[in-house]
Amino acid sequence: MIVKTAKFLVSNNYYQNCPKPDKPEYAFIGRSNVGKSSLINKIVGIQGLAKTSGKPGKTQLINHFYINEEWYLVDLPGYGYASIPLKIKAKWETMISGYLQTRKNLLTTFVLIDVRHSPQKIDIDFIENLAEHQIPLALIFTKADKLTPRKLKENLKAYQNYLHESWDELPPVFVTSSETGLGAEQVLDYIENANKVFVSSPN
Ligand code: GTP
Ligand code: MG
């Protein structure tokens, strides 16, 4: 898919206020600082559209972007950021889980994982929670540019082996870099195909 237009639409802290769920929607979620906002910018080809930062905790709201006047891309706050007050953390968790569990037009939740690390409990718990709630998901490994090709292959294999211990079938997997653009096209192609399904069966 070619991205012709991408614009920021709205930020919400109540999922109930999100745009009318009449278009296919995709959300990016994952640990703080994993690279959600950077990858959104790379995918749509507009630096600075989603706000990024070297410090975790930058994205704090549910941000809707409108792509090709056809579908929504949603940037969410990260989880697992230790330095925020418990009260705010609880608020974010309610906001994110409410959004993920009720958003009717959410076709895929992309869970972003830093490819440099071995499987982390917080990500595995999050993925399993999505599966328990029957929320369709795909995995996006980020920051592939930070590893040598050999180490990248090793880490991906190790992660997939780990998941295979409890999953018979793995969700779709993408390997990306916001620096080099690796994987952006594959994510867009996946979305293009999923959009077709939404159009033919809106209910
Ligand atoms: P929060 O909004 O705080 O949850 O973070 P986020 O997941 O949106 O991360 P963000 O996109 O703001 O990126 C965090 C940091 O990682 C920034 O310094 C980015 O430049 C860097 N970064 C993100 N993606 C990549 C990547 O693919 N490669 C490299 N080398 N750096 C990246
Ligand atoms: Mg962000």
What does this structure look like?
- The chain has 203 residues and is an alpha/beta fold.
- It has a single domain, classed as 3-Layer(aba) Sandwich (Rossmann fold).
- Helix content is 35%, strand content 21%.
- It is built from 5 helices and 7 strands, in the order ββαββαβαβαβα.
- It has helices at residues 36-44, 86-102, 121-132, 149-164, 184-200, and strands at 6-12, 25-30, 62-67, 71-75, 106-114, 137-142, 173-175.
- A 7-stranded mixed beta sheet has the order 1-3-4-2-5-6-7, sandwiched between helices.
- Bound molecules: guanosine-5'-triphosphate (GTP) and magnesium ion.
- Residues 36-37, 58-59, 75 line the site of magnesium ion.
- Magnesium ion is lined by residues 36-37, 58-59, 75.
